[in-house]
Every structure is written in structure tokens, then in C-alpha cells.
Amino acid sequence: MVLRDIHSPADLKKIPVDQLAPIADQLRDYIIDTLSSHPGHLASSLGTVELTIALHYVFNAPDDKLVWDVGHQAYAHKILTGRGERFSTIRTYGGLSGFPKMSESEYDAFGTGHSSTSISAALGMATASKLQGNTTRNHIAIIGDGALSGGEAFEALNNVGDSKANILVVLNDNGISIDKAVGGLNSYLTRITASRRYNKLKKQVWQRLDGDEGDRRHATTIDLLQRLTSMAKTVAVGGSNLFEALGIRYFGPVDGHNINDLIDILKRLRDIEGPKLLHVVTKKGKGLRQAEQDPVVYHAPGLYDIRTGNQIKAEDVDKPLKYQEVFGRTIIELAKKNPAIVGITPAMATGCSLNMMMEEMPERVFDVGIAEQHAVTFSAGLAAAGMVPFCNIYSSFAQRAYDQIIHDVALQKLPVIICLDRAGLVGDDGPTHHGTFDLAYLRPVPNLTICAPMNEHELRNMMYTAQIPGHGPVVIRYPRGASVHSDWRSDFCEIRVGEGRLLRQGNDVAIISLGHPGNDAVSAAEELEKQGISTAVYDMRFLKPLDTKLLDEIAAKGYRRIITVEDGCRIGGFGEAVTEYYAEKHPETVRNITILAIPDEFVTHGSVARLKADCRIDKAAIIEAATK
Fold it and tell me: What pLDDT score does 187 carry?
């Protein structure tokens, strides 16, 4: 049998165990071939091929529940569960999601776009099965790519050990998340796997397991694993084991690329009741030399040459820098002038470009691991002690630190600068990653200043302004990708907090924008002018405090139509903030307002241009609203 004949785990189970290795090779090649021209998360899924095969070979999904965490390591899982023929559509509009999605397949037991959720979800499922009288169903949380460093995972482990539930946690330990794994937990796992005496014993065990049939038949894998566990406890970590101390039986570490041994071990663990953890060691990017050597770049490399494995990059010297790159270069400039400035990231140093500052001034950048809550309160502590922290978090990930933003930063008026990267529609990663809620969930919080740059020069000036003493906590939110100008560098200029600006004069229609959508507003106004519609454009810059003086001036001009445009959700967002003000101060103006914002729904995955058009927040939607 070959990979194209496998349409379900049932087909996989028909293959003799000793013939599964070629299937793994085909599966890995298929992922490499497909993603070379259909970009996705490459390195993580290459590392879990054998583990995925073993899990589906041993367990009976979808009755047994497999919960993947983080979700981008589940591409092999998608292919083996009936989605192989559609795999080339992954992360495209109308195609497969880049993450497990319950509505996509019965084999996706739980949606997992963010990290560190799998153990909690699997424990909930295991508890439900117990209450429903089902004592045979297995519940497996596959947690890897640094996800175990997230606080929710620790909370769940604490609960798992006390629950006595029938749950198996498979720790996919590849020593890295998106960037290099950091923190005490990573050091702990490294001590287990790097012990010389432990590895000597492990070699003896695997030699025994790979012996003749007689020896293999009489070898008790679990006993051998427990010997390894004992060695790990007494040699590698000073006589204690974190998981055992929590009441979770620990097994491993084991080779995550040996299918035969994985199947043997998983079969035995399947029959052991109660909470247990299998520590599996894998190689992120396995099978593609470049991905093995540089798993950070090849985490999601974009297009690459299938023959050489090298990335394909468009050479365009005049192409504007991404907002992320402008942030990375600007914080270095500011930090050279202000010794109190420090950078904080929850495991996204490369994505947000704090890696630039790490290289130049490593002692002033802190990667705290996948721990957004800790990142915010850690920043609050820095600010309380006189530092100026720039805490950079992806917008959708910052949702997990909402209480800390309120309780630890805003309530205490601490001057933390929270930079919300990936705000608005992010494209192919879809609804788990769109940063569409930040304006609405932050607007009600007292003491916050909330601003959004229209271009890279505005981003630089907002960063400069935020680090000047006396402004309190400031939120700067900006989108993923390219800004506007190729000449990104500009002299710093302090912006008056809460002050918008007139970008373009007009007498018939007014467009009021916040942030990057202002560029579409200007372009739409130019097109409307050609149609004989005189259109003014206002860039508000700040959601909070709102420039009510400017809004008063707009109301006084008596425009036929006032259009607000934003890349956040409509409910509670920028447009509603403007409308609320007008309803109170200028009620006669309200009937002329059209709000263009993200509708009350979770937006699917696809290109940003397509999603903007679907959500009616693009240039065409602005023109249509102005001509009604």
C-alpha cells in the first residue's frame, strides 16, 4: 500500500508494522512537496510524522480523542484522516484550515490555533467520558513546539494528576517553539535527555528491543521505560521528577522517529489506567536539511525550491519594510538613547522582530516563553521599578492576558508600552489569529491610551511618544506585513496624545479612519474625486482618548455622508465610539454615518485582500458607501 491509498486510519491499520517506515517517508515527502508551492507551517509537522502514524495505528480515532497542541504540528494528521487529496488547499480561501478544526473533520477532536490548551481540553473530555459511563475511550493530548511552557498547560497538569482520569499526555519535545525554547522547563527536559548515564542505559534498552524475536518477545517495554524514568529521576534532575510529583506516571524519553518502538510503547500505555505522560524526543524539520538546520526560518518558510530546499525570495529593494521590521529597528534606535528601554516577547522574538534587538543588546530583551499573562505582569514589574518596557504580543494572543492588562497595568497606571502586532486581519492563519477584537476589548479599560499608526513613520513617532515619561500605559496596534513607504526612516516627532489629523480636504463626504485602513481611505477619496465627489479624509490616530474636538469640526461641516473605517470588529469598536459621541453631542449627524468594520462573526482564512472584500472594509466598500 502507498500513501495515496490511505484515506482513513482504518486503511493505515491494514499495513504491517514493519512496512510503515516507507509510508512515513512518503508522508514526509508529500508535506515537503506540497508546502513548497502552497506555503504553510513546515518544520513542526515534519517532526511529528512517525508519531502521528503511531498514534493513529494504536488508537481508534475518532472515538479515541486526539487533541493537537500546537495545532500547526498536525498536517500529517490531516492527511491520514481523509484530507490528503485537499491538502494543497491548506490555509487558502475555502480550503483546509492550517489548524485542527472541529467543523472540518470528526477526527479533529478540538480546535487548537493557540497553544497550551490541549491538556485542559483532553481532561475535560476524559472527565465527560467517565461521567457518561464510558471507561474504554482514550484521551490523548499531543503537546509540543514549546506549548508546555504556557501557564494553562501547568494549570492543567496540576489538575490531571489529582483527577485520576484516563488521559495520556504525549510531550513532543523538539527543544524549540517558533524560536528557540527558553526557560526552566526547557532546561529541565534537556537535563533528562542529555544525562550521560541515562543515555548509556537508553542505548542498552534500544539494543535489547532491536534484538532477535525471542529477546524482543520477552522484553517488557514498560519495565524498561520505568528503568529509564528512574535513571532520569536520580541522575538527570537531582532525584525528583516534576510529572511524577504531580501524580502523573512518567515514561520516557523515547525516540519519536522510531515507529515500531512508538507503537509498542503506545499499545502498552493504552492499557494503563489513569493519568500518564510519554516524553517523546523529535527533530523539528526532520527530512529537509534546511529545516533541520534552521527550524526558526523554516517554521513557516513561504515558497521554497523543492529541488534545493532553499527559500524563494522576491528581490525588490524598493519594497516597503514590514511594520514588524520597522518596530525592530526603531526600538533599537530608541534604546540607544534611552537606557531604561527593554523589550519583552512571549516566544515571538523573530515574528515581531525583537530578535534584532536581541542580537545588538541581548541583556535588554526578554523572551519569557509562551506566557502572555506573565509577559504583561513581568513588564508591569519592570515599569514599577523604573524601566520602560515595550511588551510586544500578537493581538490575538494578547486576549489571553486581558486580566493582567487591566489589573496589573491599567489599574496601577504603570507606563507599559504594549505593542499589538498582527492587529486586524492576518490572512491564511484564519480566525484563531485574526486580531479583530483588540479595539473593542481595550476601549472600556480606564487609563489606557490606544493608538494605531497609518504607516511606518507614524509607528516610529508613536513609539517615540510612548516612551516619553508621563503618558502612562500605551497600546500601539498595527497589522501584519508591509507598511507604506520604502523610506521607512524618519526623524522622531512627539505626537500630541489624543489628536487626530486632516489628511485631505473635501466638502461632500468625510472618511474617518483609524490606523492602516487610512491608506485605503485616501485611495478611495482620490477615486471619488474623479467621480466628482469631494471627499475629506481624517486619520484619528487615537481610539482613546478620542479627538472629540476634531469630531466636532467634522460635524459642523455638514457632510452628506460620514464613513468610519477600521480593521476591527464593529461591536464596541472605533466606528461605534464615533457614533456614540455623535449620538450624545451631535444627534443630527448620526443618520449620516456609515460604519465599515468587521461584522459580528469569526472571519475565515484566506488572503487579506479577499477577506477585506468579504468584510466590506476595503477601498471598493468605501467608494460604494460614499456613492449611495
Answer: 56
Residues paired with residue 169 on neighbouring β-strands, in sequence order: 141, 277
* Of 50, 372, 456, 458, catalytic: 372
Residues 18, 57: Cα–Cα separation, whole Å: 12
CA distance linking residue 595 with residue 383, whole number of Å: 37
Q: Which residues of 17-37 are buried (b: 16+ CB within 10 A; e: fewer)?
A: eeebeebbebbbebbbebbbe
Query: Which residue among 28, 78, 249, 400 is the active-site one?
Result: 400
Q: Active-site residue 191, yes or no?
A: no
Residue 628 among the catalytic residues: no
Which of 278 and 486 is assigned the larger pLDDT?
Answer: 278
Among 28, 284, 329, 460, the one annotated catalytic: 284
DSSP 418: E
Nearest CA-CA partner of 348 in 321, 323, 375: 375
**Which residues make Cβ contacts (< 8 Å) with residue 287, sequence separation at least 6?**
25, 28, 29, 32, 46, 49
The confidence score (pLDDT) of residue 389 equals 98
274: Cα separation from own chain's centroid? 31
Sheet holding 501-504, edge to edge: 501-504, 535-539, 509-513, 561-569, 593-598
More confident residue, 599 or 216: 599
Question: 93-132: per-residue pLDDT in tens?
Answer: 999 999 999 999 999 999 998 899 999 999 999 999 999 9
Give pLDDT, residue 191.
55
Q: Which residues of 143-153 are buried (b: 16+ CB within 10 A; e: fewer)?
A: bbbbbbbbebb
Distance CA 521, CA 538 (A): 9
Kindly indicate the confidence band of residue 341, based on its pLDDT and cuts at 50, 70 and 90.
very high
Distances 340 to 41, 268, 324, 414, 420 between C-alpha atoms, Å: 37, 55, 22, 14, 21
- Give CA torsion, residues 224, 225, 231, 232, to 10 deg: 170
Q: Which helix (H) or strand (E) holds 281?
A: strand 276-281
- The sign of the dihedral angle between the CA atoms of 257, 261, 266, 267 is positive
Residues 6 or more apart whose Cβ sits within 8 Å of residue 442:
405, 448, 450, 475, 543, 544
Active-site residue flag, 13: no
Q: Work out the number of other CB atoms within 10 angstroms of the CB of residue 523.
A: 15
pLDDT digits 0-9 by tens, 3-57: 999 999 999 999 999 999 999 999 999 999 999 999 899 999 999 999 999 999 9
Give strand ranges (E) for 70-227: 139-144, 168-173
Only one residue has cell 476589548, namely 441
Share the mean pLDDT of the chain. 90
DSSP state at residue 320: P
> pLDDT by residue (tens digit) across 390-428?
999 999 999 999 999 999 999 999 999 999 999 999 999
The answer to whether the CB of 318 falls within 8 A of the CB of 293 is no
Instruction: Beginning with the edge strand found earlier in the chain, give each strand of the sheet holding 249-255 in spatial order.
Output: 65-69, 139-144, 168-173, 276-281, 249-255
